[in-house]
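Assemble and predict.
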Amino acid sequence: MAAAIRVSLEPRDRAAVIEPLERLERDFRALEQSLSPMAPLWVGQPDAE
Amino acid sequence: MTILEAGRALRQRKVSAVELTSQALAAAARANASINAFITITEEAALTRAAQLDEDFARGVDHGPLHGIPVAHKDAFHTKGVRTTAGAKIFWDYVPKQDADLVARLRKAGAVMIGKTNLHELCYGVTSNNPHFGAVRNPWDLTRIPGGSSGGSGAALAAGVVSLATGTDTGGSVRIPAAYCGVVGLKPTINRQSCRGVVPLAFTLDHVGLMARTVRDVAIAFGAPPPERPELKGLRLGVPENFFFDRLDPEVAASLRLGIQTAAGLGADVSEIRLPDPASLNTVGRLIQLAEAATVWKQYQHRRSDFGPDVYALVQQGLLIPATDYLNAQRVRQRLAAEFVKIWESLDCLIMPVTAIPAPKIGEVAIQINGIEEDVRAASTRLTRPFNVLGWPALAMPSGFSHGRLPIGLQLVAPRDREDTLFRLGAALEDSLALDLAVR
């Protein structure tokens, strides 16, 4: 689906949509890689046990 | 007049609910021509409601500290029978059948709704430069933004139209306009106030908030006792040594130093603390917000021309985030929260700026801070968003002014469910700083 949306983006959207997202993705990858495969998914309060 | 003052005058029979409401309606009509804070003014319903409250009072029925107090609701709160646009063209004619929970609670407590306030489209931005209902203007300087997304609420308070307003806060949308407009804004603990009946932005980051001109008035609206003579002796106040004081406008930094010195002078035990990794909270918060907001607004994406370009671009960004990234962002969020919560073993409260800058000009996209260019959205949200991710209560309140007499805000943050600590410290600082917050 993402690919379909990416293709449907008009050239004017590249700066407004793709570039900020790519910057955010770069920041997020490092955090994601530090995540243990066994880390649970937050389902309640963010700092709840 | 503050809520406390109006309540006292009402109980001394010096003023009636109808008089308070008429004054607020007249002020709204007068101010709206310049600040565009209201999308809808509910004059007739407000006067009818106020007359009913005066009748109740005459019969000995007192609904409590908000009896007869005019309130302005952000136009993201559902109001029964009153158009609720969320600042969007797609909701131009939407009239809810029920009140949002907070609207109902304040009504039951005696508040009188005088209208619905303008906002950033769909609560998705910090400028309140609304493409459909016009830009909200900051009463301190009409060429500047009031902040957002609850910009109309902040502007209406600063202009003295009302002493109570509501807001929503997903990344700072109550606290940012509070800082830019020189008023007080509370983002309570996550889920402590019901979000039912509020137009959503991001399901796991949304908070419902309260705004007023004083800390004590916010406490009253929250349903807490206003601190009478707040005592700070023994309060362990932490000043973050990383992230929150980086890249600040020098006048914001100076104002915060004064706020910290004031707290120390009042007896707070001030210490520096290194926080785990606030920048990562912003990264996961932004990713979660993009994905959740796209989930909400995806159904309208075919109506491109009905969206402002900034909001449309954010929805498109959110649609491109893979489900795995969203889920991992929530897992990282939980890991970070487990690290951050440990700071409360040695502290009762944190103090820091709300925003890196005072209110920017309308239309300004980037701003220079100490010679480095930064996006206005980032400069406005990078110090507030972490506490939406953590869900901790946070209070924004005035700490001073820039040389150009623009308000500057400070932010107090407490552990989950300790809003009482925010009110205690906030009221003590407010009394001691004694700022003249009247717009002239």
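Chain B has a mean pLDDT of 97.
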